Amino acid sequence: MKTKIFKGAAIAAALFVASTVSAQKNNSTESLRTELEKLLNSKEASSKAELNSRLRTLAASKNEHEMILAANYYYRLNNIKTSDSIVAEQTKKFPVGIRARSIELQKITSLKSAAEMEKAFNLALKKFPPQKFATGSIDDGIEYDYVIAQIAQVYATEKNPEKATKMINQLYADFWKGNAYSGLTQAFYKAGDLARATKYARLAMENAESYTNDKKGNSNAARFAASGYPGLTSTYANMLFEQKNYSEALIYTEKAYKSVQGLNPGLNFRYATILSNLNRNEEAYAAMEQVVKAGKANPAMGDLFKSLYIKVKGSEAGFSEYAGALRKSYLEDLNKRLAKEKVNEKAPGFSLTDINGKLVSLEELKGKVVILDFWATWCGPCKASFPAMQMAVNKYKNDPNVKFLFIHTWERGGDATKEAKDYVTDNKYSFDVLMDLKDPQTKANKVVSSYKVSGIPAKFVIDGAGNIRYKLTGFDGSNEAAVDEISAMIESISGTTAVN
């Protein structure tokens, strides 16, 4: 089975966003959007009626950009059914338009081989020539670039580097090349082609660098490209490190280290490892101490920190006491922060079926601390957080007063229940998974909507009285820190510690 680096649903979402951006760049459409935004945010009763009237007119428009606006605003009003019907009508009314192009390009991602994908893409280029959709913007061609990048990556995984290179050279939008080259880097790396992985890691880094410090303007697209520079520089340094080119790896790791905002544990770890290999132990120790103080050191990082402590201090004496003091200080700071973030809101009730057909309600869990985790099989950050969540589940598995519920939501076609069950089973997660499926009439996922979630992963910690006490969104990549945070939240509202 071939590996697809970009999932079809992710591409579909990106294409939809891109088409929306394109619509907003049309001057008349932008003016309409401004007017609709005012009506949407107005508290006047008459504004709601005016908004609905304007949306009905736009939905019946002969201008596809206007239909896109109508669909987007109906979606924001939680009228998913109407939004979906406009999108369906849009495809019929404009068979070679924006939406039709998105569907055509999305289909390419489900084909079985890179050769099939390339053939289908060339046909799509003839049917939907890029120049027809050009606006003169920095992101022109991005809709095609998502597919070009995927085809190149699949060629790389099939160990056809010549074809992969030919495809990636067809990219349209310069600002997105860093992202595309980065994906190809990973594909070549997984295929065991370290030389080409290193080449494209450098190209990705250089593209991002060309957008830093407003060298190519400060548009959203330019800022997006520039924002990838620290991570892409770190990736290139990692490639050099694997080839034991420590001196050059240090040059680029140092660039990433100095340009990143905030703490990046993985970057600190690699920086410290390189410094250690060059016998610059005091600098390495200082880099790892930052990670340990922040409570974000995984076991490997902890081991490196200890070995550096011994090298710098001359022995292991005092290490346990010092590490314990750092841990205590970190937990005290964590609890102080959480005390400021605590809320007290009534948790919306729900009854949902789990992946085995059993009905589960929030009401029946009264008296327990309940942790809700909204996720989806297509959500990368959600899945990245699962090893940490499994650690948390394991920690409290013997506590009858703590319950974790993983609520799958925002499904994107197919059999969501089967996909969710297969995913947790294949990865051996012992999760209780509930299905927040779309309502057949409204097309809305009711539970996630009732919790006013705007992005996933989203977690809610609910006390025994049925009140939300903590809210979390996203995942920063540190399993140990995530478990500490969840544990501190649970224990702050239950007054107990885990039963192991």
Looking at this protein, list some descriptive labels.
8-stranded mixed β-sheet; single chain; disordered N terminus; 60% helix; alpha+beta; 500 residues
Which regions are unreliable across 5 or more consecutive residues at pLDDT < 50? 1-25
Secondary structure category: alpha+beta
Give the topology string: H per helix, E per strand. Answer: HHHHHHHHHHHHHHHHHHEEEEHEHEHEEH
Indicate the percent of residues in helices. Answer: 55-70%
Compute the gyration radius: what is it? 25 Å
Tell me the quaternary state.
single chain
Give the number of helices: 22
Sheet with the most strands: spatial strand order? 1-8-7-4-5-6-2-3
How many strand units?
8
Distance between the termini: 40 Å
How confident is the prediction overall: mean pLDDT? 90
Strand content: 5-15%
Described by strand count, sense and barrel closure, the largest sheet is:
8 strands, mixed
Query: In one word, what is the shape?
Result: globular
